[in-house]
């Protein structure tokens, strides 16, 4: 058996309709910075990799002309009726403050801040300007 190594999630890829707007929004909303931008001519695919300067987590934004919206569930319960990825979760220090700030930046309020089913955790949901569900969690309590 091979030696066990610690595993971490490297990044999440999010296909978007407006790459420039999505990049600006995620930078403003979560403090990401651009790590790199590339174009794969063979697929007409543009990629922007964002990285958080403190946490190191990465968000890959992808755009290809001709793309069409996929799952855009309005609520978390609706999202789990379709198999596949339903939302992205962000661990934040102040769920209430982040929720209000994201809504002021154009996010749609989906589920106001409240206790999570997980004991000691506070949570909320918003949808980014393109309708992708984002969960906010505070596990530091």
Automatic annotation (TrEMBL):
InterPro entries (alphabetical): Glyas_Bleomycin-R_OHBP_Dase (IPR029068), Glyas_Fos-R_dOase_dom (IPR004360), MMCE/EMCE_epimerase (IPR051785), VOC_core (IPR037523)
Limits of the VOC domain: 8-139
Keywords, in A-Z order: Metal-binding
Annotated TM spans: none
Domain of life: Bacteria
Keyword Metal-binding (UniProt): yes
Gene3D superfamilies reported in the protein's UniProt record: 2,3-Dihydroxybiphenyl 1,2-Dioxygenase, domain 1
PANTHER family: BLR5325 PROTEIN, METHYLMALONYL-COA EPIMERASE
Protein name (database record): VOC family protein
Higher taxonomy: Bacteria, Bacillati, Actinomycetota, Actinomycetes, Jatrophihabitantales
